[in-house]
Amino acid sequence: MTEEAYHSLRINLGKCLGCVHCLTSCPTKAIRIKNGKARIINELCIDCGECIRFCPQDAIDSRTTSFLDVNAFQYKVAIPATVLYGQFHNATLPTEILFALRRVGFDYVYELSTINELNNAAIEKYLNDHLEPRPFISSTCPVVVRFIQRLFPSLCRFIVPIEPAREIAAKILRANLPRVLKISPTGIGIIHITPCPAKMVSINRPVSMEKSYLDGAISIRDIYKLIFQALQQNKEETIMSHLFPETIFSGIGMGTALSGGETRGLKNHRTVAVSGVQDTIRVLNQVELGLLKDIDLLECTVCPDGCVGGPLTVENRFLAKSRILRIINMIGERAVIDSSDINLLYHKDFLSFHHPVTPAQVPPLDTDPGQAIQKANRRNDLFKRLPGKNCGACGAPDCLSLADDVVRGTATLTDCPFMKEEKE
């Protein structure tokens, strides 16, 4: 798989005006403006979607699974993120949304809140069994995992090696559906309904397993209209969908759509939840400095307010948050997963990573160590000559990035408008 195919984000050059909104919002400095258009440096991108959030021209979108790809499977399963329940008005119940997904074309819809609760219980058991290091960091947000790999590689060992709920759910289905349906495993397509472009990347190129148990992901943006239309059709039939509910919902698991939802279920541990790019960077810096050793678990989500703030959602995140809290209050927060089931799956390592998260460093300035040192010294000298305005007018996010680009041969010092009169 090429580096470009691995990424989900793409720029619509026809819409792009070459402004610097995406440039300045990118936390890994993965965007440059070249010839009046934005471009993404694949080696630096972590598919967080901040550029989608800040682009005023709607020129950046996410490559996710198409319905044509889904229809190629004999049996189609949807695993919707619980964020989906907050995208529709207050009168719409979760069972109605699941029912609408069936009408859209899925043969089976697997409700995720109970698996979120299972994941939460597994993390608690892991914290009980492992006293070091502290704080452990949740693996639920794939952007945070990749963020750590690239910018905080020393913290890779801090990541709790429990797979996120979406992968656990797909693994359970893989273990049971072929036997129950008596069809080939390759004929079963398991699709995640996601608020986040990084979920697609975690499927195409998983960090902690050889191959994802999921076959793809459809963004909430892409499927929202179809679900909305399905909710309007045959209203009488839709009402029947929740008069005889077959699905058990977990209030504990429903809360993981919100920042703090994962840590709220851990009653016996010291936890901290942060959301948003800048707060996540700030707290990971503190962990790297050894300042948060009195915390057992750190829950980081790059999106503001958690997954409800995902860039591929439709609804205002504050309204979505309010609706999900209403659903939690309606369901209650008692555990619905049997503790014996949790113990069995946990001790069989059914919920664990296949292999640990490892650093993914930015490509070096040169493969030859001696040349790399010389180039680093040259970069520092160039940086000292630049004005330090970090204005983005050169097409790079800051002066240090421009100096790095010059050394790598992808820019010149005179790209800086303040250096036009000076020759390198």
Structure write-up:
With 424 residues, the chain is of the alpha/beta class. It folds into 3 domains: 1-62, Alpha-Beta Plaits; 67-347, no CATH class; 367-424, Electron transport complex subunit B, putative Fe-S cluster (3-methyladenine DNA Glycosylase II, Chain A, domain 3). Helices cover 41% and strands 11% of the residues. It has helices at residues 3-6, 21-25, 50-54, 67-71, 94-104, 113-129, 142-151, 165-181, 197-204, 220-232, 235-243, 251-254, 261-264, 277-288, 317-331, 339-347, 369-385, 399-408, and strands at residues 9-11, 31-34, 37-40, 60-62, 75-80, 108-109, 136-137, 188-194, 216-219, 271-275, 297-301. A 4-stranded parallel sheet has the order 6-5-8-9, with helices on both faces. A 3-stranded parallel sheet has the order 7-11-10. Strand 5, helix 5 (94-104) and strand 6 (108-109) form a beta-alpha-beta unit. Helix 5 (94-104) crosses helix 10, helix 5 (94-104) packs across helix 11 (235-243) and helix 17 (369-385) packs across helix 18. The longest helix is centred in the N-terminal third of the chain and has 17 residues, at 113-129. The chain starts with a helix and ends in a 16-residue tail after the last helix. The model has no long low-confidence stretch (mean pLDDT 92).
Give the arrangement of secondary structure elements.
Layout: H1 3-6, E1 9-11, H2 21-25, E2 31-34, E3 37-40, H3 50-54, E4 60-62, H4 67-71, E5 75-80, H5 94-104, E6 108-109, H6 113-129, E7 136-137, H7 142-151, H8 165-181, E8 188-194, H9 197-204, E9 216-219, H10 220-232, H11 235-243, H12 251-254, H13 261-264, E10 271-275, H14 277-288, E11 297-301, H15 317-331, H16 339-347, H17 369-385, H18 399-408
Parallel strand pairs: 5-6, 5-8, 7-11, 8-9, 10-11
Antiparallel strand pairs: 1-4, 2-3
